Amino acid sequence: MNNSKNPSAGLGLGIAGLVLGIISIPFGIMGCTFMLALVMGILGITLSAVGYSQAKQANASTGLIIAALIISILGTSFALIRLTHSTSKSIDIFDSWKIKLEEFEGRSDEFGDSFENAFEEGFREEYEEDIDLDFDELENNLDRLERDLENMGDDIEKAFENLSDEEKARRLGKATGKALRGFVDELSDTVEIN
């Protein structure tokens, strides 16, 4: 029978668990450090439990180790309470965001409808006929126009190959001026310029 009493058996682990438990309490109460408190509390519980086991086997004093275990459990409890509180607040925040996104989607649909109605009304006022848009036909026309512009670009590039740089610059300037004049004329027809 080994009844030798080692008074320091498990005491080092108990002190370490006590320190971790004491630190975990304020960290568990504070809002932003509860995860650190949770880790320290769990480590404190583990070290205190191992120290308690060693002290029991050596018939040593367990008072400090039990206090370390209780304080570590207390710090871990504070951290868990803060964790569940933060989790429930996060869920509430995500739910409110979801509701706001659904409201925004509803408003964007309403805005799209009101924009389309206002556009059609303005078009009818100016053109004096109803507009019935066929978006597939518009898409096809835009694709065909894009292909035509690419072909024209190729033709212009071929026509420009034999010209000197000065002639290219002159023709480019002339075309730009003509396009700008057409744009200003079109703009002045649509909007009164003061």
What labels describe this entry?
194 residues, 3 domains, mainly alpha, 5 helices
Tell me what you see in this structure.
The protein has three domains: 11-91, no CATH class; 134-163; 164-194. Helices cover 82% and strands 0% of the residues. The model has no long low-confidence stretch (mean pLDDT 81). It has 194 residues and is mostly helical.
Layout: helices, strands, pairs:
Elements: H1 11-29, H2 34-57, H3 63-127, H4 135-160, H5 165-190
Helix pairs in contact: 1-2, 1-3, 2-3
Could you give a short description of this structure?
The protein has helices at residues 11-29, 34-57, 63-127, 135-160, 165-190. The protein has 194 residues and is mainly α.
> Secondary-structure element sequence?
HHHHH
Number of strands: 0
> In percent, how helical is the residue content?
over 70%
Derived structural class: mainly alpha
Domains, number:
3
Low-confidence runs: none
Terminal CA distance reads: 111 Å
> Hey, roughly how much beta strand do the residues contain?
under 5%
User: Could you give a short account of the major beta sheet?
Assistant: none
Radius of gyration: 40 Å
Q: What is the average of the pLDDT values?
A: 81
The tally of helices reads: 5
* Overall 3D form: elongated
